[in-house]
Specification:
binds FE3-S4 cluster, alpha/beta, 4-stranded parallel β-sheet, single chain
């Protein structure tokens, strides 16, 4: 791999042990993936923030990097943590967990990483432009960055994204290169897609087909007319979860989509496919649901406005978490939505989500509009799930 003089100097340790370790990680990854060089990045999003996933070993690794003088060279934000960093007692988080989580976040902030803990950095000020090379780690955000924003990122791990932040570089391979962004299969959708849960079901159907193939083609969606930000983030989260997809093209959405003809291989997705996926994730009865959550990926301000309208003057009867980023919560405060939502008894779980918070065993069944949240609710927390439309989820909380 060809390293510039300044990259070699990082590797020698001239910029301190944290930068040296970071460049070692990146050079090793570059070698594995056959990168010829490094590419400068303009934005980073670091995962591996929840103490529930990191544990003490992860905390020690971060503390060592922070102690080794690591400082972010580009704008870098964090993925959700294991709790609302301000309102954690309302979430039922233990003091021990909260203390450890605060130490994780302190290690990141010491390195100049912004403690904006969100999987939708693009809604919280970390918004790359088309063509920018970036290093993001959260799978739904990676897919959104490549497919909707037209930025270029691989699906980084926590350490490699952090290494990119501390050096300003990432190996030039995978989705940084034109040849790997070419679409390989046309997805023709002939089904009704009205709401976020439908787009999540679509992501499941297409994702599973991609996952079943060795060559993992980049999908090229046709026939979807400007689905809107919220539907796109739901689709990105789902196709990344069920198919490991870091990118798709969509006519009228993906900045590069116009440069390609739809691939000759076509997959037809029909109503039957979607209905089957919806049924599969809607596997609990209303009576069983004791936990309701909206905000996977984190809610936009428009979704919070919709929620406030549905909860105005009402009172929820189940534990109902609203997960979003702190900047969006602050906007919701300013516009008066937060007051309506909390008056109804719903709980803001800012900086975190129903997947990364330590809630395994606390609930029996969860209602959500997110196909991704259903996957992890079952796999990580052993909850039954109900996949419903956004409005139906709110009705479930009011029931
Ligand atoms: Fe975000 Fe948590 Fe879902 S990180 S995409 S809300 S699983």
């Amino acid at each position: 791999m060809n390293l510039t003089t300044s990259q070699q100097s990082m590797l020698r340790g001239d910029h301190g042990p944290a930068v040296q370790k970071s460049m070692q990680i990146l050079a090793a990854l570059g070698k594995i993936y056959g990168a010829k060089e490094m590419v400068p990045v303009t934005s980073v999003q670091v995962s591996g923030v929840s103490y529930d996933n990191l544990g003490d070993a992860g905390l020690e690794f971060l503390s060592a990097l922070a102690g080794g003088g690591g400082q972010a060279r580009v704008r870098a934000t964090l993925n959700p943590a294991g709790m609302d960093v301000q309102n954690w007692p309302a979430m039922g988080i233990s003091e021990d967990f909260a203390r450890a989580q605060q130490r994780v976040i302190a290690a990141f902030t010491r390195m100049g990483i912004e403690a904006t803990c969100t999987c939708t950095p693009y809604l919280a000020g970390n918004l790359p432009q088309a063509g920018d090379h970036i290093a993001w780690a959260e799978s739904s955000a990676v897919c959104y960055a490549n497919s909707v924003l037209g930025a270029r990122t691989n699906r980084e791990g926590g350490p490699s994204a952090l290494a990119a932040a501390l050096t300003g570089f990432t190996p030039s391979c995978g989705f940084h290169l034109d040849e790997n962004r070419r679409p390989g299969v046309t997805i023709e959708v002939r089904a009704r897609l009205d709401d976020t849960h439908h787009f999540g079901a679509l992501g499941l159907v297409v994702g599973r087909r991609i996952e079943s193939l060795a060559r993992k083609p980049v999908a090229f969606f046709t026939g979807l007319d400007h689905p809107g930000l919220e539907n796109l983030k739901s689709l990105c989260a789902s196709i990344a979860t069920y198919g490991g997809a870091a990118m798709f093209h969509m006519q009228g959405v993906t900045p590069e989509a116009g440069s390609f003809d739809p691939p000759a291989e076509r997959w037809l997705i029909e109503q039957y496919d979607l209905d089957q996926a919806l049924r599969q994730l809607d596997a609990a009865s209303s009576d069983e649901v004791d936990f309701v959550s909206l905000g996977c990926p984190h809610l936009s301000i428009d979704e919070i406005a919709r929620l406030a309208a549905l909860l105005q003057g009402r009172r929820v009867n189940k534990t109902f978490w609203i997960t979003t980023s702190r900047p969006v919560r602050q906007e919701a405060d300013r516009l008066g939505f937060s007051q309506v939502i909390t008056a109804a008894g719903a709980i803001f779980a800012v900086d975190t989500c129903c997947v990364v918070a330590p809630i395994a065993g606390r609930f029996h069944a969860m209602a959500t509009d997110s196909a991704k949240a259903c996957y992890y609710a079952a796999a990580k927390n052993r909850f039954k799930t109900r996949l419903l439309s956004f409005d139906e989820v709110v009705q479930e909380a009011l029931r």
